[in-house]
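Archive transcription. Copying these from loose printouts into the bound notebook so they stop getting lost. Printout 1 of 2:
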Amino acid sequence: MKRLVLASNNPGKLKEIRALLAPLAIEVVTQAELGIGEAEEPHHSFLENALAKARHASAAAGLPALADDSGLCVDALAGEPGVHSAYYAGRDGGREARDARNNARLLEALQGAADRRAHYCCVLVLLHSANDPQPIVAEGIWHGEIAHAARGGGGFGYDPLFLVPGTGRTAAELTAEEKNRVSHRGRALAALIARLRNENRA
């Protein structure tokens, strides 16, 4: 596999995935670069949403497709925002504005909460074709806690609130290289790459 379409228009995800796949010399193009619109994500699990996005992008592009569905799951909120992480506080505005609103809503929801445990979850689905009967699926989990205030200018999404265990820093205060080594997406991609190599399908 030399080229695949990424079923996401999230620039943060694209940057991380391109960096992590660089050792395999796989060219990653986004669905937006190919004029492909985003798929609907009506499902209640990361896996179902990732599979729907991958099949949509692969069918439209005629290429292998990689889809990522990920989000933040907060213990005190019964796993919310979960699959609704990207639009937790609504769909209006650009990505940065939505991220700021999402973070503000999360802090409000956790006001006074003693339990601030949370984890990021990433599910990756790789299809060799739109009708691939054996999708390659990999999952990564990154445990942490929710800070009381946003810190750091890196990353995206909830990173300014996500405290990384043992570091005293939020995910937004890590360098890109540090984050890729330990993040949910980094772990999921490492597992995916191992599967590809083991199955000799790369």
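Printout 2 of 2:
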Amino acid sequence: MQLTEFRAKWAAISADGSRISYFQMADGRWRIGIVSSDGTSVLQRLDAPADLKYSTVHWSPDNRALFYISAIGNVGNVRLLLFDGTTKPLTTFTSHWLSDFSLSRDGKRLAVTRSQSLSDVVLLHSTPKTQE
């Protein structure tokens, strides 16, 4: 069943199955919308947080907020996006990138995938061959 008459992507279904969040580009910026799962109405639209890194959100077990990956510099954390548009930290890491996370069904445990990228710059040059 088609739920929207507009372009929407990266859907996530609420824990109770009654709502679906989606991302939508509107007025030159990303927004997160909430639509009823029966498609009868758009319930809410929020500006996507400026620190949102990926287009993935997960619903909280109580359906009162969305979790997302926040990235400031090279440090990633999980934050809650409340439906009044405010955000709250769930983690407070001070180093490493966060590439994925999952919350247990009861909301008591969090699994995260963290990484760090290291790289070097090397200048290679060739020397002319000497004639024998």
